[in-house]
TrEMBL record, chain A:
It comes from Gellertiella hungarica. One of its GO terms (biological process) is peptide transport. GO terms for molecular function: ATP binding; ATP hydrolysis activity. It is found in: Cell inner membrane. CDD domains: ABC_NikE_OppD_transporters (cd03257). One of its GO terms (cellular component) is plasma membrane. NCBIfam families: oligo_HPY. Keywords: ATP-binding, Nucleotide-binding, Transport. SMART domains: AAA. The keyword Transmembrane helix does not apply. This is Peptide/nickel transport system ATP-binding protein/oligopeptide transport system ATP-binding protein. InterPro entries: AAA+_ATPase (IPR003593), ABC_transp_ATP-bind (IPR050319), ABC_transporter-like_ATP-bd (IPR003439), ABC_transporter-like_CS (IPR017871), Oligopep_ABC_C (IPR013563), P-loop_NTPase (IPR027417).
From TrEMBL, chain B:
Residues 6-256 form the ABC transporter domain. It is a peripheral membrane protein. Belongs to the ABC transporter superfamily. GO terms for molecular function: ATP binding; ATP hydrolysis activity. One of its GO terms (biological process) is transmembrane transport. This is Peptide/nickel transport system ATP-binding protein/oligopeptide transport system ATP-binding protein. The keyword Methyltransferase does not apply. It comes from the Bacteria. One of its GO terms (cellular component) is plasma membrane. It is found in: Cell inner membrane. Keywords: ATP-binding, Cell membrane, Membrane, Nucleotide-binding, Transport. InterPro entries: AAA+_ATPase, ABC_Ni/Peptide_Import, ABC_transporter-like_ATP-bd, ABC_transporter-like_CS, Oligopep_ABC_C, P-loop_NTPase.
Amino acid sequence: MTPPVLEVKDLVKAFPVGGFLDRLQVGKGSLLAPQRQLRAVNGVSLTIAPGEVFALVGESGCGKSTVAKTIARIYEPTSGEIRIDGEDVSRLPFRAMLPVRRKLQMIFQDPYASLDPRQRVRDIVMEPRLAQGGRLSRRELQDEAVALLAKVGLNAEQANRYPHQFSGGQRQRIGIARALSVRPTLIIADEPVSALDVSIQAQILNLMKDLRDEFRLSYLFVSHDLSVAHHIADRIGVMYLGFMVETASRDQLFREPKHPYTRVLLSAAPTLDKSNPGTKIEIRGEVPSALRLPSGCCFRTRCPLAFDRCAVERPALKPQADGSAVACHLHDRTDTERMIP
Amino acid sequence: MADPLLEVRDLRTYFHTFGGVVKAVDGVSFDVRQGEVVGLVGESGGGKSVVGFSILGLIDPPGRIEAGEILFAGENLAAKSEEEMRSVRGGEIAMVFQDPMTSLNPVYTVGHQMDEMLRLHTDLDRKARRARCVEMLEQVGISEAESRLDAYPHQFSGGMRQRVVIAIALLAGSRLIIADEPTTALDVTVQAQILKLMRRQIVERGAAMIMVTHDLAVISEMADRVVVLYCGKVVERGRTAEIINAPSHPYTRGLLDSIPRIAERRDRLDQIPGTVPDIRTLGKGCSFRDRCFRAQPVCAEKTPVLSPVRGSLDAACHFPLEETAP
């Protein structure tokens, strides 16, 4: 088997929060300023094979974007391993990351904020190449930029324009061209279509699929939209409150979701298909704060099936017989005594 | 059939900018009946939000309602003065905005903001108002309502804030609620709760709602009838099920086909080619023609008018799609 493009093990990212004054409190007769931490990602593991699209889904605040940005080393991981083509890059200093970035590029959510408004499009798309120390003549630069833009459906004349002259969908195409400029093997896409209208969203999703086939790319695709994830992904990981609660192949996940949260998420999403309207699973309340994680299972406060053990013991992500993995005590046992009906 | 609660007739709202006149809403007509949810859908720039704002008279210069009637229970809102409109807003017609983070005032308590609505539109005394607020918060699913009234908006989560906004909209017993992307900023599990709540409140009160959204999936679950807008014009309207299952306008069809569906996975999504044209430079003819797969020379010559196609569907198209169209 070919080695995975990306292997993440027990990734943890915690952010210190609050200023010094916010944290001040009196304890045991003296003034203390304890460190408070927002635990955004709590031990996430995942692997992506060459040419595979892995989608991370979940609601806002579940840590899916933080995982993506930590893998790209925009955030420093608190602990854990990030292996790209077998090499652990989680502790590499800035300069040593440079060659790694030839293999890994990122596409951002907001096509308005992620392009420098003062650079021409041809310079934007060639920036990663130049950062890699590429020495190119003016002529070569121009030709390469035009070739890249052609790949994403923009024409040569547009290479000399500035970002504000483009619509949201076109800008996202520029962002994709920029990511492709160093011929990466892995592209991390953080909600690449959520800022776009549906008709434009379809264009970008189709383009990303075509490019994957053409360049044998792997994607780590972050999305809050289940139907988008279903459309593009081979495998899907569902996150909740910084934990990976379930990973499975796309078909498995949608045919037979195992974790109660996955079921809730699937049933809550509005759809055009009115095949089974009456089957919405009721769920109460909202996501707890990441500053005070619940004891035991992260989902127990909202889970309709929670029982005693859930408050005491944190379930680990355990592989199941069918190749998926679930972090739920209900799926922990080999016997079917507690299996969800 | 009962008289419509709201009739919008040939509404035209234009914005006079330095770059030219933006015809954000250009001849839009539709009805809303009691107990009904009408969905306004379309992509950004379609003019759907401006319709909602026009009904409430919330159009600021350089924008202006140029023509058309907005008949609410027989009265033309478009002809009312600002003073008169102030008693309509929040009273007879209430609005729920997209962003629950900004539609509440951060320096007043939630209770104060709810109370304001009752102070302006009812003559209940202080105690009765307070009791009404508590009752309303409980109805929208906020527990410990009594103590939550004294909390500030930042102490609520996004979903809770949107519940408060909805509670405020429902407080004065409005007969029409205009909801502009009410759940777009919320997560799906919370969205499901809020949609259910809104639907129930509308049905129980016999009120009506105009739901402005870009999300056809939400519309298909919420609305009784749908009005599809493109470049400020109604391109299609009709019963929700008919529009979702067998649209007659190529634009509606394109919108529906570009949504990834879980039940039927296609390798590629059918995309609408191109982008929305610049609304300032629209000439005569159909504004969708450059992106339309059925466009003929006549589409550039003659602007199609909204006319009955089949069933409940009206479409503005020279070549509407058949029910069994591929």
